[in-house]
Amino acid sequence: MCGIVGYIGKRDVAPLLLEGLQRLEYRGYDSAGIVITGKAAAGRPGTLKMVKAKGRVRELEAKVPKRFAGTTGIAHTRWATHGAPSDENAHPHMDAENKVAVVHNGIIDNASELRTRLTADGVVFLSETDTEVLTHLIARAQADTLEEKVREALRHVEGTYGIAVLHADFNDRIVVARNGSPVVLGIGEKEMFVASDVAALVAHTRQVVTLDDGEMATLKADDFRTYTTEGSTTTATPTTVEWEAESYDMGGHDTYMHKEISEQADAVDRVLRGRIDDRFSTVHLGGLNLDAREARGVRRIKILGCGTSYHAGQIGAQLIEELARIPADAEPASEFRYRNPVVDPDTLYVAVSQSGETYDVLAAVQELKRKGARVLGVVNVVGSAIAREADGGTYVHAGPEVCVVSTKCFTNTVVAFALLALHLGRIRDLSVADGKRIIDGLRRLPEQISEILAGEDEIKRLAAEYADAKSMMFIGRVRGYPVAREASLKLKEVSYIHAEAYPASELKHGPLALIEPAMPTVAIVPDDDLLEKNRAAMEEIKARSGRILAVAHQVQEKADHTIVVPKNENELDPILMGIPLQLFAYHTALAMGRDIDKPRNLAKSVTVE
Ligand code: F6R
């Protein structure tokens, strides 16, 4: 999704901003642009110089003229919402006098109404974007300072924004504001950065300040200040980003997806590190802010997330029910927030998000907080909006996930849920022996993941075998069902092969009609109490001449092929069973020549509705 990067300091700004944009490429975009303030003669205002291009950052780079010197600038990668991808619709947007330039992430809900009003006042629009409205509002604001002009403009605007603004008459500063779309300040030595994602900053500084909703900031080369959109000063203490710039590199892999799948043994090791308490056969999750008495009072747990995080939450809900015996379920946050949910004081809400910025999840959290609920976050990005909005929670420590398609973060999130379930279980009725059993199982995971990854060549061969399918069915029961759903999502996202996921038990209630030789099925078949039931489902498929690829703990006779995965404790099996299917999706997409790290139409973090 859209990306912002800005710089003010002494260095030549254009190469810095272009490099920053490249680091944001993974988020998905369709056009890019850059604006810088040219050198101001003494006592005279500077001029703004802008270049925009439809397509990739390298196309923008090719258009940037040789003489494009300046030490202050802002840049953007756009993901079209209002108006098709084009040079005109790319950001930044400037006013008629070329004095104000704005880059914007988010959506201005009342843009068309404001556009009509401004057009009636004689403003000529050059693009179809909602952002241009904001540019003209700032340019026409009567206030004396840039901060007040921006504030005045924002008062007319409804919707979400992360913005950065340059003004030719105030060329010693960049003014930024946040409402619903991330804005992070990077604090350097006599230089300041701003970005929508720390990925664009960490090569230069690891000292960051994340703005809250309703917060603004003024960046000058040697200082910054933060304040609310109402004008009152806020305190902002920089924190240190734990991830190194190298964590965002490809590290010798051809794609980020492959790199991230391959990192999972280490990533799981990281989420477990320092948390296991062998003495009481439990785990410590320092940030939960939920003491044992409060945890005992929880009557129900509702998990909210989107896409892959929602699927991780479904496995999380099962783990909580199994280990802690607390009724739990997961629901897409995007649906939850629109159905006027009944918020029960004894329910603990858990928001799950890799990015910590997904708008639908954030909005659900804000709605819950407004209604007085207690919300925990299970989040990957430290200091992200959802992490800060929640009352407590746990980080999943997967490390930066760059590929649009989530893999390692899914696995780590499920492990984090296993830790939460164990923690809650040991406060309630889970025995020491069962606690120890689960801890032993958790400790086996990294090695078992390495074992699965070592089988990549065989999975690649199987992917080639099934890559001709136009459509695939994924089935599983209870613990296997969310695994099937996630594996089906992975395949469709990255290969564009149509895939359906159903509980195996539901086959005969309708989807069996789809089964024929051209519709292969991937069956999740753990060695647990439902093994025979799963075998019966495979039998039904075989009877209709369906091809079957099983993911199981032992070779399945009914299946045409089986990927055998190592057995763990029944409750933890779902963590491992999804991993070969990430590789399956990856190799299918590779064989089909897909753009693996940036599947069509998708963006990494969906910070708009
Ligand atoms: C799928 C995928 C998406 C995200 C979803 C939520 O591979 O990555 O389905 O899981 O957009 O994103 P986060 O977890 O950042 O809230």
From TrEMBL:
UniProt subcellular location: Cytoplasm
Major localisation: cytoplasm
Alphabetized GO MF terms: glutamine-fructose-6-phosphate transaminase (isomerizing) activity
Reactions it catalyzes: D-fructose 6-phosphate + L-glutamine = D-glucosamine 6-phosphate + L-glutamate
Domain SIS stretches: 290-430, 462-599
Keyword Repeat carried by entry: yes
Catalytic site positions: C2 (nucleophile), K604 (for fru-6p isomerization activity)
EC number(s) from the headed UniProt entry: 2.6.1.16
Pfam family, one: GATase_6
Keywords: Aminotransferase, Cytoplasm, Glutamine amidotransferase, Repeat, Transferase
InterPro entries, A to Z: GATase_2_dom, GFAT, GFAT_N, GlmS/AgaS_SIS, GlmS/FrlB_SIS, Ntn_hydrolases_N, SIS_dom, SIS_dom_sf
Record domain Glutamine amidotransferase type-2: where: 2-222
Subunit description: Homodimer.
Function comment: Catalyzes the first step in hexosamine metabolism, converting fructose-6P into glucosamine-6P using glutamine as a nitrogen source.
Name of this protein: Glutamine--fructose-6-phosphate aminotransferase [isomerizing]
Organism whose genome encodes this protein: Streptomyces durocortorensis
